[in-house]
Amino acid sequence: MEQLLAMTRRQFLGRGAAGIGSAALASMLGGVTSASAGTSGAATSAPPHYPARAKRVIMLTQAGAPSQLDLLDYKPGLIARRGELLPDSVRMGQRVTTMTAGQAQIVAPSPFRFAQHGRSGAWMSELLPRTAAIADDLCIVRSVHTEQINHAPAMTFFQTGHQIPGRPCIGAWTVYGLGSENRDLPGFIVMVSKDVARTCDQPLYEHLWSAGFLPAEHQGVKLRAGREPVLYLPNPPGVSRSVRRGQLDDLGTLNSMHEEATGDPEIAARVSQYELAFRMQMSVPQLMDLSDEPEETFELYGEAARRPGSYGANCILARRLAERGVRFIQLYHVGWDQHRHLPEQLRIQCEHTDQASAGLVVDLKRRGLLDDTLVVWGGEFGRSPVGQGDIETPDYGRDHHPRCFSVWMAGGGVRSGTTFGETDEYGFNVTRDPVHIHDLHATLLRLLGIDHERFTFLSQGRRFRLTDVAGEVVGGLMS
Q1: pTM for the predicted model, two decimal places
Q2: Which of 23, 275, 331, 362 sits a CA distance of 20 to 30 A from 14?
Q3: Residues β-bridged to residue 378
Q4: End-to-end CA distance of the chain
Q5: In the chain, where are the structural domains located?
Q6: How far apart are CA 411 and CA 139, in angstroms?
Q7: Distance in angstroms (rounded) separating the CA atoms of residues 403 and 405
Q8: Alpha-carbon span 308 to 41, nearest angstrom
Q9: How far apart are CA 267 and CA 319, in angstroms?
Q10: Which CATH number applies to 2-477?
Protein backbone atom coordinates (compact mmCIF):
# COMPACT_ATOMS: atom_id res chain seq x y z
CA MET A 1 0.00 0.00 0.00
CA GLU A 2 2.86 2.39 0.80
CA GLN A 3 4.22 1.85 -2.71
CA LEU A 4 0.83 2.61 -4.22
CA LEU A 5 0.56 5.80 -2.18
CA ALA A 6 4.06 6.81 -3.26
CA MET A 7 3.25 6.53 -6.96
CA THR A 8 3.80 9.67 -8.97
CA ARG A 9 0.94 11.20 -10.94
CA ARG A 10 2.60 9.97 -14.15
CA GLN A 11 2.79 6.39 -12.84
CA PHE A 12 -0.82 6.46 -11.63
CA LEU A 13 -2.16 7.72 -14.96
CA GLY A 14 0.01 5.29 -16.93
CA ARG A 15 -1.15 2.27 -14.95
CA GLY A 16 -4.74 3.47 -14.99
CA ALA A 17 -4.65 3.80 -18.76
CA ALA A 18 -3.27 0.28 -19.07
CA GLY A 19 -6.14 -1.05 -16.99
CA ILE A 20 -8.75 0.80 -19.02
CA GLY A 21 -7.16 -0.50 -22.23
CA SER A 22 -7.32 -4.08 -20.94
CA ALA A 23 -10.96 -3.71 -19.92
CA ALA A 24 -11.83 -2.14 -23.26
CA LEU A 25 -10.19 -4.96 -25.19
CA ALA A 26 -11.90 -7.59 -23.07
CA SER A 27 -15.26 -5.96 -23.75
CA MET A 28 -14.50 -5.55 -27.45
CA LEU A 29 -13.49 -9.19 -27.91
CA GLY A 30 -16.39 -10.73 -26.04
CA GLY A 31 -15.27 -10.34 -22.45
CA VAL A 32 -12.22 -12.60 -22.61
CA THR A 33 -8.95 -11.02 -21.55
CA SER A 34 -6.16 -11.99 -23.95
CA ALA A 35 -2.42 -11.79 -24.28
CA SER A 36 -2.89 -8.42 -25.86
CA ALA A 37 -4.17 -7.05 -22.59
CA GLY A 38 -0.81 -7.88 -21.05
CA THR A 39 -2.03 -10.68 -18.82
CA SER A 40 -0.41 -13.75 -20.35
CA GLY A 41 1.36 -15.14 -23.38
CA ALA A 42 -1.63 -17.17 -24.56
CA ALA A 43 -3.75 -16.30 -27.58
CA THR A 44 -7.22 -14.93 -27.09
CA SER A 45 -10.04 -17.47 -27.39
CA ALA A 46 -12.70 -14.83 -28.01
CA PRO A 47 -14.11 -14.61 -31.53
CA PRO A 48 -13.36 -11.50 -33.62
CA HIS A 49 -16.09 -9.08 -34.74
CA TYR A 50 -16.90 -11.00 -37.93
CA PRO A 51 -16.25 -14.51 -39.23
CA ALA A 52 -12.60 -14.40 -40.26
CA ARG A 53 -11.68 -15.25 -43.85
CA ALA A 54 -7.95 -15.20 -43.05
CA LYS A 55 -6.14 -16.56 -40.01
CA ARG A 56 -2.76 -15.09 -40.80
CA VAL A 57 -1.01 -12.56 -43.07
CA ILE A 58 2.18 -12.74 -45.11
CA MET A 59 3.14 -9.26 -46.28
CA LEU A 60 5.74 -9.15 -49.06
CA THR A 61 6.92 -5.55 -48.71
CA GLN A 62 8.91 -4.32 -51.70
CA ALA A 63 10.76 -1.34 -50.23
CA GLY A 64 11.55 1.54 -52.54
CA ALA A 65 8.38 1.48 -54.66
CA PRO A 66 8.07 -0.91 -57.64
CA SER A 67 7.15 0.78 -60.91
CA GLN A 68 3.53 -0.17 -61.53
CA LEU A 69 3.76 1.17 -65.09
CA ASP A 70 6.44 -1.37 -65.93
CA LEU A 71 4.88 -4.29 -64.04
CA LEU A 72 1.12 -4.30 -63.45
CA ASP A 73 -0.57 -1.19 -64.91
CA TYR A 74 -0.39 -1.47 -68.71
CA LYS A 75 -0.50 1.85 -70.57
CA PRO A 76 0.00 1.15 -74.30
CA GLY A 77 -1.20 4.65 -75.20
CA LEU A 78 2.02 6.12 -73.80
CA ILE A 79 4.02 4.65 -76.68
CA ALA A 80 2.63 7.24 -79.09
CA ARG A 81 3.22 9.98 -76.49
CA ARG A 82 6.86 9.14 -75.85
CA GLY A 83 8.91 12.33 -75.42
CA GLU A 84 5.87 14.59 -75.06
CA LEU A 85 5.33 16.89 -72.11
CA LEU A 86 2.88 15.66 -69.50
CA PRO A 87 -0.23 17.84 -69.99
CA ASP A 88 -1.08 20.32 -67.26
CA SER A 89 -4.63 18.95 -67.34
CA VAL A 90 -3.24 15.61 -66.13
CA ARG A 91 -0.76 16.86 -63.58
CA MET A 92 -3.15 19.51 -62.19
CA GLY A 93 -0.37 21.17 -60.23
CA GLN A 94 0.39 18.08 -58.19
CA ARG A 95 3.79 18.13 -56.56
CA VAL A 96 6.82 16.13 -57.59
CA THR A 97 10.00 15.61 -55.60
CA THR A 98 12.99 17.93 -55.81
CA MET A 99 14.74 15.27 -57.90
CA THR A 100 12.55 16.04 -60.93
CA ALA A 101 11.02 19.42 -60.08
CA GLY A 102 13.67 21.24 -62.14
CA GLN A 103 13.38 19.15 -65.29
CA ALA A 104 10.80 18.95 -68.07
CA GLN A 105 8.04 16.44 -67.34
CA ILE A 106 8.66 14.12 -70.31
CA VAL A 107 6.43 11.08 -70.81
CA ALA A 108 8.33 7.75 -70.74
CA PRO A 109 6.39 4.62 -71.78
CA SER A 110 7.45 1.24 -70.47
CA PRO A 111 10.20 -0.46 -72.49
CA PHE A 112 8.83 -3.87 -71.52
CA ARG A 113 6.26 -6.02 -73.29
CA PHE A 114 2.91 -6.78 -71.67
CA ALA A 115 0.51 -9.66 -72.29
CA GLN A 116 -2.75 -10.98 -70.86
CA HIS A 117 -2.67 -14.07 -68.67
CA GLY A 118 -5.05 -16.65 -67.26
CA ARG A 119 -8.79 -16.84 -67.60
CA SER A 120 -8.97 -13.42 -65.97
CA GLY A 121 -6.94 -11.84 -68.78
CA ALA A 122 -4.80 -9.83 -66.36
CA TRP A 123 -2.18 -7.67 -68.06
CA MET A 124 1.33 -8.24 -66.74
CA SER A 125 4.84 -7.33 -67.77
CA GLU A 126 7.34 -9.73 -69.27
CA LEU A 127 9.40 -9.12 -66.11
CA LEU A 128 6.91 -11.15 -64.04
CA PRO A 129 6.55 -14.50 -65.85
CA ARG A 130 6.07 -16.58 -62.68
CA THR A 131 3.59 -14.12 -61.18
CA ALA A 132 1.73 -14.06 -64.51
CA ALA A 133 1.37 -17.85 -64.28
CA ILE A 134 -0.73 -17.46 -61.10
CA ALA A 135 -2.81 -14.54 -62.43
CA ASP A 136 -6.08 -16.29 -61.65
CA ASP A 137 -5.10 -16.56 -57.96
CA LEU A 138 -4.44 -12.83 -57.66
CA CYS A 139 -6.44 -9.73 -56.91
CA ILE A 140 -4.50 -6.90 -58.57
CA VAL A 141 -5.33 -3.46 -57.19
CA ARG A 142 -4.24 -0.65 -59.53
CA SER A 143 -5.81 2.25 -57.67
CA VAL A 144 -3.95 2.40 -54.35
CA HIS A 145 -2.89 5.92 -53.35
CA THR A 146 -1.24 7.76 -50.47
CA GLU A 147 -0.35 11.33 -49.46
CA GLN A 148 3.33 10.69 -48.80
CA ILE A 149 5.88 11.32 -51.56
CA ASN A 150 9.16 10.44 -49.80
CA HIS A 151 10.26 7.00 -48.72
CA ALA A 152 10.53 7.19 -44.93
CA PRO A 153 7.13 8.82 -44.24
CA ALA A 154 5.46 6.81 -47.00
CA MET A 155 6.71 3.46 -45.71
CA THR A 156 5.82 4.49 -42.17
CA PHE A 157 2.33 5.41 -43.40
CA PHE A 158 2.02 2.13 -45.30
CA GLN A 159 2.87 0.18 -42.14
CA THR A 160 1.25 2.24 -39.38
CA GLY A 161 -1.41 4.47 -40.95
CA HIS A 162 0.52 7.60 -39.98
CA GLN A 163 3.56 9.28 -41.48
CA ILE A 164 5.29 10.06 -38.18
CA PRO A 165 7.01 7.20 -36.29
CA GLY A 166 5.58 6.14 -32.96
CA ARG A 167 2.35 4.36 -33.79
CA PRO A 168 1.88 0.58 -33.89
CA CYS A 169 2.33 -1.16 -37.23
CA ILE A 170 -0.32 -3.37 -38.78
CA GLY A 171 1.48 -6.53 -37.64
CA ALA A 172 1.47 -5.39 -34.02
CA TRP A 173 -2.20 -4.40 -34.24
CA THR A 174 -3.08 -7.82 -35.65
CA VAL A 175 -1.29 -9.79 -32.96
CA TYR A 176 -2.59 -7.45 -30.26
CA GLY A 177 -6.15 -8.24 -31.30
CA LEU A 178 -5.92 -11.91 -32.26
CA GLY A 179 -2.95 -13.35 -30.40
CA SER A 180 -0.89 -16.17 -31.90
CA GLU A 181 -1.57 -19.84 -32.55
CA ASN A 182 2.00 -20.86 -31.64
CA ARG A 183 3.26 -20.52 -28.09
CA ASP A 184 6.87 -21.31 -29.09
CA LEU A 185 7.32 -18.48 -31.61
CA PRO A 186 6.43 -14.77 -31.60
CA GLY A 187 3.11 -13.87 -33.20
CA PHE A 188 4.76 -11.27 -35.44
CA ILE A 189 8.01 -12.07 -37.27
CA VAL A 190 9.98 -9.85 -39.66
CA MET A 191 12.67 -10.74 -42.20
CA VAL A 192 14.74 -8.37 -44.35
CA SER A 193 16.47 -9.53 -47.53
CA LYS A 194 18.70 -7.72 -50.00
CA ASP A 195 19.30 -8.33 -53.66
CA VAL A 196 22.67 -9.80 -54.54
CA ALA A 197 23.47 -7.21 -57.20
CA ARG A 198 22.61 -4.30 -54.84
CA THR A 199 20.73 -2.32 -57.48
CA CYS A 200 20.08 0.34 -54.86
CA ASP A 201 19.73 0.64 -51.11
CA GLN A 202 16.62 1.71 -49.26
CA PRO A 203 17.03 2.20 -45.50
CA LEU A 204 14.57 0.42 -43.25
CA TYR A 205 13.95 1.56 -39.69
CA GLU A 206 12.87 -0.66 -36.83
CA HIS A 207 9.90 1.56 -36.04
CA LEU A 208 8.30 -0.01 -39.13
CA TRP A 209 7.66 -3.17 -37.08
CA SER A 210 7.26 -1.45 -33.71
CA ALA A 211 4.38 -1.95 -31.29
CA GLY A 212 4.24 1.79 -30.67
CA PHE A 213 2.01 2.42 -27.66
CA LEU A 214 0.68 -1.14 -27.64
CA PRO A 215 2.22 -3.60 -25.16
CA ALA A 216 5.81 -4.18 -26.22
CA GLU A 217 5.37 -7.95 -26.59
CA HIS A 218 3.47 -7.33 -29.85
CA GLN A 219 6.33 -5.74 -31.77
CA GLY A 220 7.88 -7.67 -34.63
CA VAL A 221 10.79 -9.98 -33.88
CA LYS A 222 13.42 -9.82 -36.59
CA LEU A 223 14.88 -13.06 -37.91
CA ARG A 224 18.36 -12.64 -39.38
CA ALA A 225 20.39 -14.86 -41.67
CA GLY A 226 23.52 -16.34 -40.15
CA ARG A 227 24.57 -18.05 -36.96
CA GLU A 228 22.34 -15.99 -34.65
CA PRO A 229 18.87 -15.54 -36.22
CA VAL A 230 17.60 -13.72 -33.12
CA LEU A 231 20.15 -11.56 -31.35
CA TYR A 232 21.06 -12.59 -27.79
CA LEU A 233 18.78 -15.64 -27.90
CA PRO A 234 21.43 -18.36 -27.36
CA ASN A 235 22.85 -18.94 -23.91
CA PRO A 236 26.33 -17.49 -23.37
CA PRO A 237 29.29 -19.88 -23.10
CA GLY A 238 29.24 -21.83 -19.85
CA VAL A 239 25.49 -21.47 -19.27
CA SER A 240 23.60 -24.71 -19.88
CA ARG A 241 19.90 -24.96 -20.61
CA SER A 242 19.22 -26.33 -17.13
CA VAL A 243 21.10 -23.43 -15.55
CA ARG A 244 19.11 -20.97 -17.67
CA ARG A 245 15.88 -22.69 -16.59
CA GLY A 246 16.83 -22.25 -12.96
CA GLN A 247 17.68 -18.58 -13.49
CA LEU A 248 14.30 -17.96 -15.11
CA ASP A 249 12.48 -19.75 -12.30
CA ASP A 250 14.22 -17.60 -9.68
CA LEU A 251 13.66 -14.46 -11.71
CA GLY A 252 10.00 -15.38 -12.12
CA THR A 253 9.60 -15.69 -8.35
CA LEU A 254 11.14 -12.27 -7.76
CA ASN A 255 9.05 -10.69 -10.49
CA SER A 256 5.86 -12.24 -9.07
CA MET A 257 6.63 -10.70 -5.69
CA HIS A 258 7.27 -7.33 -7.32
CA GLU A 259 4.07 -7.53 -9.35
CA GLU A 260 2.04 -8.37 -6.28
CA ALA A 261 3.52 -5.39 -4.47
CA THR A 262 3.18 -2.83 -7.27
CA GLY A 263 0.40 -4.08 -9.52
CA ASP A 264 2.49 -3.19 -12.57
CA PRO A 265 1.01 -5.07 -15.59
CA GLU A 266 4.27 -4.73 -17.54
CA ILE A 267 5.95 -7.22 -15.20
CA ALA A 268 3.73 -10.11 -16.32
CA ALA A 269 4.36 -9.20 -19.95
CA ARG A 270 8.11 -9.15 -19.32
CA VAL A 271 8.03 -12.58 -17.65
CA SER A 272 6.04 -14.03 -20.56
CA GLN A 273 8.67 -12.72 -22.97
CA TYR A 274 11.45 -14.35 -20.94
CA GLU A 275 9.60 -17.66 -21.16
CA LEU A 276 8.96 -17.24 -24.89
CA ALA A 277 12.67 -16.58 -25.47
CA PHE A 278 13.50 -19.78 -23.58
CA ARG A 279 11.16 -21.81 -25.80
CA MET A 280 12.53 -20.06 -28.91
CA GLN A 281 15.96 -21.47 -28.13
CA MET A 282 14.53 -24.76 -29.38
CA SER A 283 11.95 -23.63 -31.95
CA VAL A 284 14.03 -21.11 -33.91
CA PRO A 285 16.87 -23.46 -34.92
CA GLN A 286 14.27 -25.99 -36.09
CA LEU A 287 12.51 -23.30 -38.09
CA MET A 288 15.66 -21.99 -39.76
CA ASP A 289 17.02 -25.40 -40.78
CA LEU A 290 15.91 -25.93 -44.38
CA SER A 291 17.73 -29.24 -44.76
CA ASP A 292 14.42 -31.09 -44.41
CA GLU A 293 12.96 -29.31 -47.44
CA PRO A 294 12.73 -31.55 -50.53
CA GLU A 295 14.49 -30.64 -53.77
CA GLU A 296 11.19 -29.64 -55.36
CA THR A 297 10.90 -26.78 -52.87
CA PHE A 298 14.01 -25.10 -54.25
CA GLU A 299 12.87 -25.80 -57.79
CA LEU A 300 9.65 -23.96 -56.94
CA TYR A 301 11.19 -20.96 -55.15
CA GLY A 302 14.36 -20.70 -57.22
CA GLU A 303 17.99 -21.65 -56.85
CA ALA A 304 18.74 -18.48 -54.85
CA ALA A 305 16.48 -19.81 -52.09
CA ARG A 306 19.37 -22.04 -51.01
CA ARG A 307 21.24 -18.92 -49.85
CA PRO A 308 20.29 -17.86 -46.29
CA GLY A 309 18.98 -14.32 -46.18
CA SER A 310 17.89 -14.27 -49.80
CA TYR A 311 14.36 -13.29 -50.72
CA GLY A 312 13.70 -16.84 -51.84
CA ALA A 313 14.92 -18.35 -48.57
CA ASN A 314 12.80 -15.89 -46.62
CA CYS A 315 9.73 -16.84 -48.67
CA ILE A 316 10.30 -20.49 -47.73
CA LEU A 317 10.60 -19.44 -44.10
CA ALA A 318 7.37 -17.48 -44.45
CA ARG A 319 5.57 -20.66 -45.50
CA ARG A 320 7.16 -22.58 -42.62
CA LEU A 321 6.02 -19.88 -40.20
CA ALA A 322 2.50 -19.99 -41.62
CA GLU A 323 2.46 -23.76 -41.08
CA ARG A 324 3.44 -23.14 -37.46
CA GLY A 325 0.58 -20.73 -36.83
CA VAL A 326 2.50 -17.44 -36.69
CA ARG A 327 -0.10 -14.71 -37.08
CA PHE A 328 1.74 -12.00 -39.04
CA ILE A 329 4.82 -12.60 -41.20
CA GLN A 330 6.47 -9.68 -42.96
CA LEU A 331 9.23 -9.80 -45.55
CA TYR A 332 11.03 -6.63 -46.60
CA HIS A 333 13.03 -6.60 -49.82
CA VAL A 334 14.97 -3.45 -50.66
CA GLY A 335 16.19 -2.27 -54.03
CA TRP A 336 13.08 -0.97 -55.83
CA ASP A 337 14.12 2.69 -55.96
CA GLN A 338 14.91 3.02 -59.67
CA HIS A 339 15.70 6.72 -60.14
CA ARG A 340 18.37 5.68 -62.64
CA HIS A 341 19.09 2.67 -64.87
CA LEU A 342 15.48 1.54 -64.60
CA PRO A 343 15.47 -0.89 -67.57
CA GLU A 344 18.44 -2.81 -66.16
CA GLN A 345 17.76 -2.51 -62.42
CA LEU A 346 14.07 -3.33 -62.57
CA ARG A 347 14.83 -6.49 -64.51
CA ILE A 348 17.33 -7.53 -61.82
CA GLN A 349 14.83 -6.87 -59.02
CA CYS A 350 12.21 -9.02 -60.71
CA GLU A 351 14.71 -11.82 -61.31
CA HIS A 352 15.37 -11.85 -57.57
CA THR A 353 11.74 -11.81 -56.45
CA ASP A 354 9.29 -12.96 -59.12
CA GLN A 355 9.79 -16.71 -58.83
CA ALA A 356 9.84 -16.80 -55.04
CA SER A 357 6.75 -14.58 -54.67
CA ALA A 358 4.76 -16.76 -57.05
CA GLY A 359 6.27 -19.92 -55.57
CA LEU A 360 5.02 -18.94 -52.12
CA VAL A 361 1.44 -18.62 -53.39
CA VAL A 362 1.69 -21.95 -55.24
CA ASP A 363 3.22 -23.67 -52.19
CA LEU A 364 0.55 -22.36 -49.82
CA LYS A 365 -2.14 -23.48 -52.24
CA ARG A 366 -0.67 -26.99 -52.57
CA ARG A 367 -0.60 -27.38 -48.80
CA GLY A 368 -4.15 -26.14 -48.27
CA LEU A 369 -2.96 -22.96 -46.52
CA LEU A 370 -3.85 -20.31 -49.09
CA ASP A 371 -7.56 -20.21 -48.28
CA ASP A 372 -6.88 -18.84 -44.79
CA THR A 373 -3.54 -17.09 -45.45
CA LEU A 374 -3.66 -13.57 -46.85
CA VAL A 375 -0.63 -12.71 -49.00
CA VAL A 376 -0.03 -9.03 -49.84
CA TRP A 377 2.65 -7.77 -52.29
CA GLY A 378 3.48 -4.08 -52.74
CA GLY A 379 5.57 -1.03 -51.85
CA GLU A 380 5.03 2.35 -50.25
CA PHE A 381 4.03 4.23 -53.42
CA GLY A 382 4.51 3.96 -57.19
CA ARG A 383 6.65 5.51 -59.92
CA SER A 384 5.86 8.38 -62.24
CA PRO A 385 4.99 8.04 -65.95
CA VAL A 386 7.49 10.87 -66.43
CA GLY A 387 11.10 9.88 -66.99
CA GLN A 388 13.82 11.03 -64.62
CA GLY A 389 16.84 12.06 -66.68
CA ASP A 390 17.22 11.62 -70.41
CA ILE A 391 14.77 8.95 -71.56
CA GLU A 392 16.81 8.45 -74.74
CA THR A 393 19.59 6.86 -72.71
CA PRO A 394 19.51 3.58 -70.74
CA ASP A 395 20.31 5.32 -67.46
CA TYR A 396 16.94 7.08 -67.11
CA GLY A 397 14.63 6.26 -64.21
CA ARG A 398 11.30 7.19 -62.65
CA ASP A 399 10.57 9.44 -59.69
CA HIS A 400 8.26 8.76 -56.74
CA HIS A 401 4.52 8.82 -57.42
CA PRO A 402 1.96 8.63 -54.59
CA ARG A 403 -1.13 9.39 -56.71
CA CYS A 404 -1.60 5.80 -57.86
CA PHE A 405 0.23 2.51 -57.59
CA SER A 406 -0.46 -1.22 -57.69
CA VAL A 407 -0.42 -4.04 -55.17
CA TRP A 408 -1.56 -7.63 -55.48
CA MET A 409 -3.16 -9.92 -52.95
CA ALA A 410 -3.91 -13.64 -52.87
CA GLY A 411 -5.78 -16.08 -50.63
CA GLY A 412 -7.44 -15.22 -47.33
CA GLY A 413 -10.84 -14.28 -48.75
CA VAL A 414 -9.77 -11.88 -51.51
CA ARG A 415 -11.50 -11.96 -54.90
CA SER A 416 -9.09 -13.95 -57.05
CA GLY A 417 -8.75 -13.44 -60.79
CA THR A 418 -9.66 -9.77 -60.42
CA THR A 419 -8.10 -6.51 -61.52
CA PHE A 420 -9.59 -3.72 -59.41
CA GLY A 421 -9.47 0.04 -60.02
CA GLU A 422 -8.32 2.10 -62.96
CA THR A 423 -5.91 4.94 -63.64
CA ASP A 424 -5.97 7.50 -66.43
CA GLU A 425 -4.31 6.95 -69.82
CA TYR A 426 -1.03 8.32 -68.47
CA GLY A 427 -1.05 6.26 -65.28
CA PHE A 428 -0.93 9.46 -63.27
CA ASN A 429 -4.29 9.67 -61.46
CA VAL A 430 -6.89 7.20 -60.23
CA THR A 431 -10.07 7.37 -62.31
CA ARG A 432 -12.15 4.54 -60.80
CA ASP A 433 -12.42 2.75 -57.44
CA PRO A 434 -9.68 4.53 -55.46
CA VAL A 435 -8.18 2.59 -52.56
CA HIS A 436 -6.44 4.71 -49.95
CA ILE A 437 -3.93 3.11 -47.57
CA HIS A 438 -6.54 3.43 -44.79
CA ASP A 439 -9.04 1.60 -47.01
CA LEU A 440 -6.50 -1.15 -47.64
CA HIS A 441 -5.85 -1.51 -43.90
CA ALA A 442 -9.57 -1.54 -43.13
CA THR A 443 -10.08 -4.31 -45.69
CA LEU A 444 -7.17 -6.41 -44.42
CA LEU A 445 -8.52 -6.19 -40.87
CA ARG A 446 -12.01 -7.12 -42.07
CA LEU A 447 -10.63 -10.25 -43.77
CA LEU A 448 -9.12 -11.13 -40.37
CA GLY A 449 -12.55 -10.66 -38.78
CA ILE A 450 -11.82 -7.27 -37.19
CA ASP A 451 -13.93 -4.12 -37.47
CA HIS A 452 -11.34 -1.36 -37.92
CA GLU A 453 -13.62 1.27 -36.36
CA ARG A 454 -14.17 -0.69 -33.15
CA PHE A 455 -10.57 -1.86 -32.84
CA THR A 456 -8.99 0.86 -30.70
CA PHE A 457 -6.42 1.41 -27.99
CA LEU A 458 -6.51 4.16 -25.38
CA SER A 459 -3.24 6.12 -25.30
CA GLN A 460 -2.61 9.61 -23.92
CA GLY A 461 -6.32 10.20 -23.47
CA ARG A 462 -7.32 9.32 -27.03
CA ARG A 463 -8.59 6.12 -28.61
CA PHE A 464 -6.27 5.33 -31.51
CA ARG A 465 -6.86 2.89 -34.32
CA LEU A 466 -4.81 1.64 -37.27
CA THR A 467 -6.98 3.55 -39.75
CA ASP A 468 -6.92 6.76 -37.67
CA VAL A 469 -10.23 8.55 -38.40
CA ALA A 470 -10.70 7.32 -41.97
CA GLY A 471 -10.82 4.13 -44.00
CA GLU A 472 -13.59 2.16 -45.67
CA VAL A 473 -13.75 -1.58 -46.25
CA VAL A 474 -13.49 -2.20 -50.01
CA GLY A 475 -16.05 -4.90 -50.72
CA GLY A 476 -14.88 -5.30 -54.30
CA LEU A 477 -11.60 -6.81 -53.05
CA MET A 478 -13.32 -9.58 -51.09
CA SER A 479 -14.85 -12.77 -52.42
Answers
A1: 0.89
A2: 275
A3: 61
A4: 56
A5: 2-477
A6: 9
A7: 7
A8: 30
A9: 33
A10: 3.40.720
